[in-house]
Write the structure tokens for this entry.
Amino acid sequence: MEVDFLCAKLGIVIELDGEQHFADADAYRRDRHKDVLLQQHGYFVLRFLAGDVAKRLDHVLDGLLAVIQSQRNRQHGMTNQV
């Protein structure tokens, strides 16, 4: 399986989706199926719009940093309270 970015140590997969991912129903279904398979193998999947990386990088990075911290806490037996 191919992913855009992988951090195996923290169990994080990052996928960047362009608009073409939403224009084709079969492509959308394949992406969701890929997410399920990755999640079944213990990965936390983050999906961002490719355009947001350029236009809203601060939001992308905030989301990524939050997941990194959560995964680190999880690995060290700590729990996050919402």
Q: What stands out?
A: Residues 5-74 form one domain. Helices lie at 20-23, 25-40, 50-55, 57-75.
